[in-house]
Specification:
It contains 2 helices and 7 strands; from the N terminus they run ββαββββαβ. It is an alpha+beta fold.
């Protein structure tokens, strides 16, 4: 799973992520991509599950780029703990994605194979995605 080696701050605020993606919205490395259509958080587990699904479908052929990284730490409190007592312990990491962000890119395979691999990967995410081609 993906996670940062080091953090400046162990616990951070949730923050606001309004507006479309201003970077990472074009297919730069491969021939095909998987684009977000809505904003959300992708956990490191979801990204890894999607990557493995794609890799297995293309039988380790072609090249896959993961364009997002889970930098954001998310905290959670244990079950049945009352209000107060501070913020919870670090639980997992997420990648914040905005509409238009490219999550994965792929090259070296046929378009039909890439589209099916991306479809399998898209099922692992809690947001709507779209298959795109590099023009």
């Amino acid at each position: 799973m993906l996670l940062p080696r080091k953090l400046k701050h162990r616990k951070i605020f949730k923050g606001s992520y309004a507006g479309p993606a201003t970077r990472g919205f074009t297919v730069d490395f491969g021939d095909y991509g998987l684009k977000c259509m809505e904003r959300g958080w992708l956990t490191s587990r979801q990204i890894e599950a999607a990557r493995r699904a794609m890799t297995r479908y293309v039988k380790r052929g072609g090249k896959i780029w993961v364009r997002v990284f889970p930098h954001k730490p998310v905290t959670s409190k244990p079950a049945e703990v009352g209000m107060g007592g501070g913020k919870g312990a670090l639980d997992h990491f997420v990648a914040v994605v905005k509409p238009g962000t490219i999550i994965f890119e792929m090259s070296g395979v046929e378009p039909e194979v890439a589209e099916e691999a991306m479809r399998l990967a898209a099922h692992k995410f809690p947001i709507k995605t779209k298959f795109v081609r590099n023009n």
